Each structure stands twice: as C-alpha cells, then as structure tokens.
Amino acid sequence: MATEVRVLSVITRLGRGGSERRLYDVLAAVPAAHTVVIGGESDPDVAAALAERTEVLRCDALVRDVSPADDARALGHLVRLLRDRRFDAVHTHQSKAGLLGRVAARIAGVGVVYHSSSMASFGPGYGRAESAAFAIAERLTAPLVTRFFVVGDDLAGRMRANGVRPDRIEVVRSSLELGPFAPLHDQADDQADGGRSAARRQLGLDPDTPVVAFVGSLDQRKNVLMLPDAVAAATGGGPVTLLMAGAGPLADQMADDARQRTDRVDVHLLGHVSDVPLVMRAADVLALPSSAEGLPQVLVQAARGGLPFVAFDVDGVAELLALGAVGRSVPLGDHAGFATALRDELAADQGSGGVDPAVWEQWEPSVVAAHYRRSYQLGRELD
Fold first, then answer.
1. Which residues 6+ apart lie within 8 Å of 35 measured at CB?
2. d(Cα 346, Cα 318) in Å, to the nearest integer?
3. Of 5, 228, 308, 335, which sits with the fewest C-beta atoms within 10 Å of its C-beta?
C-alpha cells in the first residue's frame, strides 16, 4: 500500500479503554497518512498524547448520547472534512462515530469504510428501546461498511444475527503485551519476586485476607456499585479486600460507600494504574460485573496468568472459557449468583488454567498489525 494513502479515523470518545487500543493498533499497523477526529467528551490528556504522534481534530458535536442537533452538526463536520481533504478511507471506532462516519463517507463519496467494534451497541445489556433503536440503525447502515473488524467470535455472531454479511466481518484481537501476565502461583518463598505475598506487601494489603480485584472504568456499564455487597456476601461476613483499579464517573460514589460501610469489606480505590499485573498477582479472583462487553481485555490478561474470574455472561466470556480460561459465567443481572460464584472461586484450589500457549499469539501486536495490513490490502480497496 502506498504511503500517500490518507485515512481518517473517527472515535466518539477518546479515553483509556479497548476502543482506543484498537485505534492505536490501526495507526501503528497501516502505513498511511492518518488523521483522527475525536469527540467533544474525549480525555484531554489522552488526546494531547495522541496529538504527539498524528494529526488530531476535535469535533465537539460528536457525543456519546443521542442528540439530533449535535448529531446533525457532527455529520456536517465530517462531510465537510471528507470533501475538503479527499481521504481514501474512513475507519470508525465506537457506535456513534461508526454510524455518523459511514453515512458521512457515503455523502462525501468515500468508498472504503472500515469499522472496528469492541462491543455491540445493542443487546441484553441495554434498555429495550435503546437496544432496538441501535440494532435497527446498525442493520440499515451496515451495507455502507466495507469491512467490520470485531474483537471476538461472540461479537461477530451477534452482528451476523443482526444482518451483517458474514463475508464483511473479520475477528481481529486488540493487541496486548501479555508477557508481564505470567501464570500466578502462591509461592512458598515469601520474598519471591512476583509472588502473591510480595504483591500484597507492595500494595499495603494484609497477606492473609482474601482479595477480589476489579480492573476497569468505574462507570455504570461496569456495574461497579454492586461489588462491595457481592464480595461481602461471598465471604459470609468474613474479612475481604476489594481492590478497585480504575477511574471513572462513579469513583466518588464508590469512595463514599467505602467510608460508610460497617462490614468487613476493605475497599481500596487505586485509581488508574499502569501496573495491572501487580494488581492481578495480589488477587485471588477477578470480578467483572459488566452489563455489556465484546471480549474484555482484562479477562484475557487474567486468563493469561491463570487468575480465576467471575463475570456476567456478556460477549467474550464464554469464548474465553471455551479456550480453557479458569472462571465462572453468571446470568446477566443475577447479583446473588455473582456473589455465589465469587464464593466458589475463592474456595476453589485452582491451577494456572488450561489454555494452550499458542492461543495467546492472536493478541501479539505483530500478529494484529499483520492482520490489519493484510485486510487493508484485501480486494485492493486502497489502490
């Protein structure tokens, strides 16, 4: 592919999640002149860091919630940009950018449109009306997309069921550096580097108290507010440490809840952490009560290390369990079942999991990059 190819990427809200990882994968893999349009709700620090490596344009009207006035302005912004700059391809990320970007590309006459999907915008994790509206919008506009890059097989199946042609869907993992997530063992030598006791000591935790960890955004979709009660029920009132690694809009509410608790749940709010392997080494089980996912990166990391997890049965969970990951899937919304699954995992004597080591190659950055380069050339769309 010639280096003069120009690709416009559009992302609704630039932050620190899985969609951003997929955007960075494309920027690193595809030899082209890249411009990225980010929405008005984007993290300014993350945006500034991205601007150091490629051109970044901000569209304040591009927002996550449905807003006819803002959506019309964002669509007009994208159409004008595409007509003025003559891009060869549009690559969208997240649902709102995906819908507006593919329509803008059609209006502006850009014939190559890619969409990277980290999770569906419809399904049981959403309200009935919202889910139905987005499912219809996705179904009607899917023919405008040249190719969908989806993070997992479960998500691919959901999209096929909603009418997307199978030949337009490719499973491409989000790249992960999985080396630091070595298999976990509760090492006998208390001084052993990387052991559970050492990790707990580094985090200032009691070495003998059970530890449940959560890693992710503290927001409504992740259902983080249920976790303190769930871990309390899992231990029957006994002492337990809940590690919350992440930031988000519910952080203050989580902190207030932690201060007011009278049980024996010791909640540690770590904020955004860069050393996720340390958090996982300290934990006995990882909890992920999300109501919607595609294939959660944090569960891939846990599975790589053999750390058991408990999650609702959202997209990607069954897929990882089928690969040999250690964990339990609970029907979405069953809070009592989630607590029971946590109790069972805390009581279990688990090994390091039964995942074939070759499986992890799918997430290797070089493998992901090669897949994108190959797919961008497929059919000579950019010639």
1. 6, 7, 8, 9, 54, 55, 56, 57, 85, 87
2. 20
3. 335
Which domains occur in the chain, in start order? 6-175+364-380 (3.40.50.2000), 196-359 (3.40.50.2000)
pLDDT 10s digits, 294-306: 999 999 999 999 9
- Write out the two tokens for 341: 């699954």
SS3 assignment for the chain? CCCCCEEEEEECCCCCCHHHHHHHHHHHHCCCEEEEEEECCCCHHHHHHHHCCCEEEEECCCCCCCCHHHHHHHHHHHHHHHHHHCCCEEEEECHHHHHHHHHHHHHHCCCCEEEEECCCCCCCCCCHHHHHHHHHHHHHHHHHCCEEEECCHHHHHHHHHCCCCHHHEEECCCCCCCCCCCCCCCCCCCCCCCCHHHHHHHCCCCCCCCEEEEECCCCHHHCHHHHHHHHHHHCCCCCEEEEEEECCCCHHHHHHHHHHCCCCEEEEEEECCCCHHHHHHHCCEEEECCCCCCCCHHHHHHHHHCCCEEEECCCCHHHHHHCCCCEEEECCCCHHHHHHHHHHHHHCCCCCCCCCHHHHHHHCHHHHHHHHHHHHHHHHCCC
pTM here is 0.90
* Per-residue pLDDT tens digits for 149-197: 999 999 999 999 999 999 999 999 999 999 999 774 433 444 444 588 9
